[in-house]
Amino acid sequence: MTNSEGSRASQRRMVEGESSNARERRLKMQADLERMDQRMEESDAEDMSTLRRQSESERLREERRTKKRNDPISSESEQGEFEIGVNLVQEEGNGLQMKKE
Question: What spans are recorded as compositionally biased (Basic and acidic residues) (predicted)?
Answer without folding.
Answer: 13-42, 49-71
